[in-house]
Amino acid sequence: MTMERIRKYVTLGNIIGLIIGLFLTWFVVAFLVYPNLNLLKAVFWVNGTFSIEPIQKLLHSTRALKSLLNSFILAVSMVVTVNIIGIFLVFVNEYFDIKGSRLLRIGYYTTLVYSGIVLVSGYKFLYGEQGFITKFLSNMFPFFPAGWFHGYWAVIFVMTFACTSNHVLFLTNAIRKIDFQTVEAARNMGASSFYILRRVVLPVLQPTLFAITILLFLTGLGATSAPLIVGGTEFQTITPMILAFSKSPTSRDMAAVLAIFLGAATLILLIFLRKIEKKGNYISVSKVKSEIQKQKIGNKWLNALVHVLAYLLFIVYALPVLLTITFSFTDAYSISTSTLSWSHFTIANYRMLFTEADAYQPYIISIVYSAAAAILVVALSLTVSRFLHKYSNICTTALEYAMLIPWLLPSTLIALGLIITYDTPRWILANNVLTGTMWILMIAYVIVLIPFTLRMLRAAFFAVDSSLEDAAKSLGASTFYTFRRVILPIVLPSTLAILALNFNSHLADYDLTIFLYHPLFKPLGIAIQNATSGQTTADTQALGLVYSVVLMVISTVTLYLVYGRKSKA
Amino acid sequence: MKIKLKRILLPLLGIALASSLAACGNNASTTNAADPVNSTNSAKPTNSAKSPLVIYTNSASDGRGDWLKEKAKEQGFELQIVEGGGGDIANRLIAEKNKPVADVIYGLSTMNYEEFKAQDMLEQYKPAWADEVSDGLSDKDDYFHALVKQAILMIYNSTMYDENTAPKDWPDLWNDEQFHNKYDAPRTGDLGGGTVQATLAGILVRYQDPNGEYGISQEGWDAMKNYLKFGFYKAEGEDFYANLASEKTPLGPMFSSGIASREQQYGVKAGIVKPEIGVPFIVEQAAIVKGTKNLDSAKAFVDWFGSAEVQTEWSKQFSSMPANNKALENAAQDIKDLEASVKQQDIDWAFVNKNINNWVEKIQLELLP
């Protein structure tokens, strides 16, 4: 961004805009562009020459190419399957009249507090070699293979049910914005239920669905835990390889190449969906919205089928969580054999967690870091979204894409970029050194949260009708007042959901944290890793589950504080 | 709407603030003095004696870190331990080389220290106990000194095999069909680990060939390919020793000090394969980081930690094999027996250090199934 272009803002209007614009420019350059370019330079310019050797090496590796292909297969499959399940969940919760939907909702919300490796382990209690369902099936059919839950289908099954969080949160917010009078009007004019769904309901959901689809695609490309646990050697994906490469000094260039390739694929999808997005109008017509009323499904058989499916899904969601909680009260023997008996019931694992000398400290440190990062990144992204919503020019487009840079690199490399760039005083940070301070971890947390936050907030901003804003302005409201009293309330539900998700996402982070944490402030992710791997004096498997349950409790409390009370109101 | 917003956000901010204050409160008194990076005038010797030493290590689990902190405190050392996987700690150290956070490093392996030395990251210092360590274990230029020897062994479930039926050496695993899919093989994410790298090196250096790819002959690469082809790859979250005990994979690599505690946990004794060629030994070292603001107390700490007395206790607590000969004399009998019974494989670690990253990369790209 050149000064002239920034000057244009001044002539356009307000000085605050200029200050914010300058701040954003500084932020993007200092934390998104400069450290990452610096790292890429260190990675690719070996001995002063640029080399395309990493690309050649990758092209010659059948293993890398196959893993890459698998990642794309997974990403595309997930876009289909998760959207189907996710949309179904949201309609069951919000649109159709389903008996017991309050209970169902609890089951569907479990993915919000329960993710990654824990979730996949939860699935293993059911479908793994020793799992309950496997045992049940092999009792019924003697030749049923114990290792059936394996490979592509197992991965896609786990990932499908693991990744509906964004639907449950953001699509729900979007569906609540549908103007019920329009639905009624359509019905009065003789539209069928299906027609109403297709022509009235879905268009309003489209911006959110697009945003979720991009995230799904990215999640599929970046899948780690599920392929590592149930993929086996026949369905390996690329992310574990990227992670391994990013930790080896000689192979870092390949990690960067692969990550940039995946990021570029996501960006292409993003640009494509943005093109479609721009053509549409996603604001429901009525200015005086009436709340949506749940629709009864007319056809008796269809109604029964939807009920059965809804409860089946509830079981699929709820059982792994219940089993994880139950098994956290047992020992390694019970966990590895998936057997439950009173004689193996113990609370020793929990006792150990809370009686250690400085056991509570990592929790406080991680909670403070995560909360601060979540709030900062939401404040930043709200500002940026507001800019993007209000102005559309080359600067804002550049800003938007710059904010997506963290999608282009694995978190290890982002961490290393920060360390090697800010280990000496740089004028861009007023000659402050970041390496070795407690700030560097906070900055890194903020950086990696930006793309997700911005993407979801932008989708929320599509629901803001600019005529409301104009009305407020013409009544004499100031820009800030309009933002606070008119726009913020509209985007608030999504904002709070993002806040909660962001908070949860870094509570137990290891990959980024290990490189940046301050010796005095040991975060939870480090404590968990050290307690559960390489440890032999304790029951590490049980301890792993105990930590997961504790994290689930923290996440649930957060969701309730930030979000739960609102949704009840 | 306004009231609602406040209701929701205020408690959240409240929590954040309260907890951040709590966290500050805990440490406010120590932060300034403790932070070696931020303290501008720490060049004063009076300050450096008091400020805590920041120790980087991969060897703080199983209570090692807490034990060390406590014992060091009795000697007047305040320690802050940054612990993580060996590869992660080494990467972090290298990334921070212009602005070191660590004062002292211990653990890891000779390969890592060779790299640190090459990048001029270490302070030259000869600890008081340097002469009690056998030649060839520590750095000849006194940049790092040996603390603990780890034999990287192939172990087996002793209820399934005995000395005669177990493999005699690594090549048996892939040459003898009965062991196929019975041994634990390294997955993508394991290849950065010290034990795995020493195992790979132990196999590859048998086929050293100056004209071969990365110094290894084609025969060697074929052997490595077969080793990886016929191995069993456990899923994330599975534990090798648990699989050994359950007879799923009764064979696999293990570092010597890890055996005793696992035998106890799983109730299955491990048999040890003793190949004629010997087994790789990796050596955990101690070194002082160049640029430390606490040079004097770092030296004093290394003098204390590596001493025969402390290493004897360390060995008794955590069944390590001391590099310090005086400490080894006083170590538990089974450790002395192990030390005496397995031969050290002759490995040119400088050669390994030069090539290991390329080897691992080739394995990742071409040889893993």
Secondary-structure map with pairings?
The complex is a heterodimer of chains A (569) and B (369).
Chain A: H1 3-12, H2 15-44, E1 45-46, E2 49-50, H3 53-59, H4 62-95, H5 101-108, H6 116-127, H7 132-140, H8 151-162, H9 165-175, H10 180-188, H11 193-221, H12 225-231, H13 239-246, H14 252-279, H15 300-327, H16 332-337, H17 348-355, H18 361-390, H19 394-402, H20 411-421, H21 439-461, H22 466-474, H23 479-505, H24 513-516, H25 524-532, H26 540-568
Antiparallel strand pairs in A: 1-2
Helix pairs in contact in A: 1-2, 2-20, 4-8, 4-9, 4-11, 5-15, 6-12, 6-15, 8-12, 9-11, 10-11, 11-14, 11-21, 13-14, 18-21, 18-23, 20-21, 21-23, 22-23, 23-26
Chain B: H1 2-34, H2 45-50, E1 53-57, H3 64-74, E2 79-83, H4 86-95, E3 104-107, H5 110-118, E4 122-123, E5 145-157, H6 170-175, H7 194-204, E6 208-213, H8 218-229, H9 240-245, E7 251-255, H10 259-266, E8 270-273, E9 281-289, H11 295-305, H12 308-318, E10 321-322, H13 325-330, H14 333-341, H15 349-367
Parallel strand pairs in B: 1-2, 1-3
Antiparallel strand pairs in B: 3-9, 4-9, 5-7, 5-8, 5-9, 5-10
Keywords (chain A): Cell inner membrane, Cell membrane, Membrane, Transmembrane, Transmembrane helix, Transport
Family (chain A): Belongs to the binding-protein-dependent transport system permease family.
Organism (chain A): Paenibacillus monticola
